[in-house]
Structures are given as structure tokens and as C-alpha cells.
Design goal:
Length: 51
């Protein structure tokens, strides 16, 4: 596997995880105990992606 392939694979994995996280957030009740944790995770993933 070339470096380019591994970079693309990593970016696709990040995108897939972000989509799953956002889908989970949309389904959560605003009073859910995990809501803050999931929002923090989404924020961290977005911050890492734009660096």
C-alpha cells in the first residue's frame, strides 16, 4: 500500500466515524447522559480534521 492509499483510507475512516457519530447525536434525547460526551467527541473529530 502506498502512502497515498493509507492517507485516503485514514480520511475515509474518519469520515465514516463522523457520520456515525452525527447520526447517533441526531437520535439522542437532549437529556441523555451521553450527550455531552458525544458532542465533545464530534468537536474533537472536527478540530482534528481541519488541522
Amino acid at each position: 500500500m502506498t502512502d497515498g492509499d493509507s492517507i485516503v483510507d485514514a480520511l475515509l475512516a474518519e469520515e465514516h466515524q463522523a457520520k456515525e457519530d452525527l447520526s447517533a447525536l441526531e437520535k439522542m434525547d437532549m437529556d441523555a447522559a451521553d450527550l455531552t460526551r458525544m458532542l465533545d467527541r464530534a468537536r474533537d473529530a472536527i478540530s482534528a480534521a481541519i488541522k
